[in-house]
Design brief:
By secondary structure, the protein is an alpha+beta fold. It has two domains: about 90 residues, Orthogonal Bundle (Helix Hairpins), CATH 1.10.287; about 140 residues, Heat Shock Protein 90 (2-Layer Sandwich). It is built from five helices and five strands. It has a five-stranded mixed beta sheet with strand order 1-2-3-5-4. Helix 4 runs antiparallel to helix 5. The longest helix is centred in the N-terminal third of the chain and has 47 residues. The chain is globular, with a radius of gyration of 21 Å.
């Protein structure tokens, strides 16, 4: 029995070492891709300040958009890989060190406020949330913020001008439900069942390769939670994820889940 345990431990260490090696390699590749791209975007920015013809400025804007799309693609590749190896990374179920979902939501709203303003869309915290409550969840702070940010960015991409995106928090007893409600056109039925799969994307992918929502699913499920989406009666879509509160067992089960529609 002890020998079998030692063999399992050795196999785990070998696998972890191999994954660590590949993670370092991927980070190096991403760095080598992102470095020149930053130079390209900087050159475009300087060129935009020059007095150029209308046709030249049109081509410049195309180049800037394509560079931004490439930047998103690089980030999504790195996020997806990080999600797949996340089982080897730590997260907290300790009530003292677990991340605060309300704090994470507020940080994301602050970070994305400029992008939302540029697109004439409002992002807001649901005003009915009791900000004095304890909103801690099992997870890790930076990755929790990334999950919320990915969902909020996704909502922005599908929101018309002069609409709003509202982020809500619901205390369900043993779990916390986080919701992101938009007023967009809704999700086509032909892609509704595949949105959280790798490389899935809608007709308006806008240069994305469909890894942002995949990262969200991998991360939330690793923390013992679940994630999904549903149409809203008022129009638009609700994306949601549910995480256990810290101190609760990971693979929680309840007889009935509250509605998220």
């Amino acid at each position: 029995m002890q020998q079998r345990g030692n063999e399992t431990s050795l196999n785990y260490q070998r696998l972890k070492k191999e994954i660590d090696r590949k993670e370092v390699l991927l980070h190096c590749i991403v760095h080598d891709l992102a470095g020149p791209l930053m130079g390209i975007k900087g050159g475009f920015e300087l060129l935009s300040r020059e007095n150029i013809s209308d046709s030249g400025r049109k081509f410049l804007e195309i180049g800037m958009r394509q560079a931004s799309r490439q930047e998103i693609l690089i980030r999504e590749i790195l996020q997806a890989f990080s999600a797949e190896v996340e089982s080897f990374q730590s997260f907290s179920v300790d009530p003292e060190t677990a991340p605060d979902a309300l704090l994470a939501v507020n940080l994301v709203i602050e970070a994305l406020s400029s992008a939302y303003s540029l697109n004439q869309v409002k992002i807001q915290l649901d005003p009915v949330i009791d900000t004095s409550k304890n909103w801690k969840v099992a997870g890790e702070k930076s990755r929790l913020e990334r999950v919320i940010s990915n969902l909020a960015e996704n909502a922005l991409r599908h929101s018309p001008a002069n609409s709003s995106v509202t982020i809500g928090l619901f205390d369900e007893g043993d779990t916390i439900l986080v919701t992101i409600d938009d007023q967009g056109p809704g999700i086509p039925t032909e892609i509704a069942g595949t949105l959280f799969q790798k490389f899935a994307q809608g007709k308006k992918g806008r240069g994305k390769i469909g890894l942002g929502l995949y990262f969200c699913r991998m991360t939330v499920e690793h923390w013992g939670g679940e994630i999904g989406h549903s149409p809203r009666e008022q129009g638009g879509t609700r994306f949601w994820f549910r995480l256990p509160k810290p101190g609760r067992k990971r693979d929680y089960e309840t007889d009935e889940k509250p509605s998220v529609s």
